[in-house]
Amino acid sequence: MKSNQEDEAAMIRAHAGYPWPELFVWFYIRKLSDHLLPFEDFHIQILNAIKPGEYGKQVNIQAPRGTGKTTLVNRLIPLWRICYKDFDLAMDRKPEEFILIVGRNATMARQRITEIREVLETNLLIRRDFGDLVGSPWTKTATDTRNGIALRPLGRGSSPRGALVGAARPTLKLCDDIEDPKRCLNPDLRVEDRDWFMTDFMYAGDLGSEHSNTIIVDTVKHPESLSEHLRTLPGWRTLRYEAVVDPHDIYHPTAERLWKAWERLYCDTTLYDEEREENANAFYAKHQDEMTGGVTMLWPEKLPYIAVRKEIVQRGYHSVMRELQNDPRDPSMTLFAMNNALTFSVTDEGFRRSDARVVPWHDIGGFTTYLDTMGGRDAAENSYACAVVVAWEPLPGGASLNPDSLTGVNGYILLAWIDRVALTPQMENAILLAQRAEAVLAPAHPKSLFVCEQRPDNDGTIRQSTDHAFRVMKDRHRFQGHIMYHEQHQNKEDRIATLEPAIANGWLAFNEKDLPGEFWTQFRQFPTADHNDAPDAVQGAVRSRITTTAPQRANLDAARRFHRNSVARL
What we know:
Elements: H1 4-17, H2 21-28, H3 30-33, H4 41-47, E1 58-62, H5 69-83, H6 85-90, E2 98-103, H7 106-122, H8 124-130, E3 134-138, E4 143-145, E5 150-155, E6 172-176, H9 181-184, H10 187-201, E7 213-218, H11 226-231, E8 237-240, H12 256-266, H13 273-292, H14 305-315, H15 317-323, E9 343-346, E10 350-353, E11 358-360, E12 366-372, E13 385-394, H16 398-401, E14 409-419, H17 423-440, E15 447-454, H18 461-477, E16 483-487, H19 492-497, H20 500-504, E17 508-511, H21 517-525, H22 533-542, H23 550-569
Parallel strand pairs: 1-7, 1-8, 2-5, 2-6, 6-7, 9-17, 12-15, 14-17, 15-16
Antiparallel strand pairs: 3-4, 4-5, 9-10, 10-11, 12-13, 13-14
Helix pairs in contact: 1-2, 5-7, 12-13, 14-15, 17-18
């Protein structure tokens, strides 16, 4: 006989788990969910995707690999709904009657049913507080609970008619990882799977009374996948999660130099596996705060930032974007090999390149600040404003002796700013960037250019507004430079594509530390990126490059003075 106190405790536990499924899991299913505890916010959001008493809901969940989405959706949610059928009835709400669990194939779906059945059979806490829920039939392909809920498995592409229970239709449909990565690459198979889902599968529910709820959870395997399609449809609510909360931090915003050093240790195949692991781990332990500071992770306890960096090394950037960030891009469609791009750091001696060469200050000829404006008529969601500073290393002999160079120079992308703001703050940030570059490059005595893209402007209003913004910010910040305008005529993607040999051959290098995440993203994903304003700004700066150093300019000035004096004497 249970005591009154035990009865009261059981009642409190049971009642608390009805509105808060996370408490139900905590109280009753710790063994099944130990790998998820303590819950992160996103776990709780998934468990509460559809609340008791909600009907006709359609939820599309995009979650990274390894975050427990299968356990949450195909095990914990069904168990919660089964245990609380009597509570639904007591609250005069429609209870679950038929749960359809869908997998990539029938075998995977049947496995989920088996796991649920085993919990109801063996979990003593559930049996004590909710009774014996084992019903009949009780098999892999047909499981009915004692309180009258049918569970049936279904493989993707199969006819739902075979899973129906008499005239009953599913009240809850749960789909986990139903898209096949290989099928997603085939446009005909993508259409076939989408048609099956939107017709055969969705019409298996009781649409007339809107009593059927649907939850689909997956990683985004293709830009035109079913999950991405559902994001665009009215009536569907999408919960999207990324392992690195700010995708621009996939590559660290300030400590990429340290990560490159860690990567060299981690990939040193001249050593035994254990030794290189030890070396890389020791380096990480020494610099961990700097290497992880500023990066927010979705689930830091189980999926820390270093795990993402290891995945990039082992599986590649595009795999990480697909599996952990739900942002699939076809790597065969991207143009710039950014993983192999030359980088550099600023030192007391000059620029230290990732190929170990140091460019001394006296070899830096100057820098170009280039502002690619959003334009007065551009909506904020359609583009970014981007300002870049590119420093130039004129090569001995110029283009004539260096035909394979960036037309006689090497370029160093030193600073960048990218944002969506009005024209005046765009100009202000570009001027501040130029002044910052002037300070950094002071030992080189650099020549500087300040260039703004000239947009199509039939009546001159854009040019007038830009001139005004420049004058206001020039006076405010006591800027000594003058504005120049650069008009673009070539197709935008075509002119950006001209940067490819410069990046591939190391003629254009990227600062390891001071370039924003969105800047890196646009280069890595071009031309498949959502925006391409950063590479466009760099291409504009390349068109306005500086080809002489301070000593060369001094020699030229001396030669001109000598020539003028000689003519005057004559």
